[in-house]
Amino acid sequence: MVEVLTLLRIIKVTIVILGVLIVYLSGKAFLRNGSRSMLFLAIGFVLITIGSVLAGVLFEFLGYTLLEVVTIEASVMLAGFVSIIYSIYGTKS
Q: What distances in angstroms separate CA 34 from CA 17, 24, 27, one per listed residue?
């Protein structure tokens, strides 16, 4: 069980690192050309990354159950994916 938990922590840290990189690049693209689609893309990846971080904090430090953590993480990630879809189909820039 300890090995699985360690693997999960490594995966979560990798998700955060990649999420921060994607947010940085899409934020930089938004600042460069002012495209609303890049703004909503960045917001979407911020939410997805926050969902992953939040899940880890809630489980590791605040004692939430696994079901509660997964439900909260999935809800925040859903909002992130909605923002990404909006960035692709809903903006006129």
A: 25, 15, 10
pTM score above 0.85: yes
Residues 44-64 have pLDDT tens digits of: 999 999 999 999 899 989 999
Domain encompassing residue 67: 2-89
Pair of tokens at residue 77: 């990630």
Query: Angle CA(60)–CA(65)–CA(71) in degrees, nearest 5?
Result: 105
Per-residue model confidence as pLDDT tens digits over 78-91: 999 999 999 999 87
Which residue from 49, 52, 46, 43 is spatially nearest to 72, judged by alpha carbons? 52
DSSP 63: -
Domain count, the chain: 1
Nearest CA-CA partner of 14 in 43, 44, 56:
56
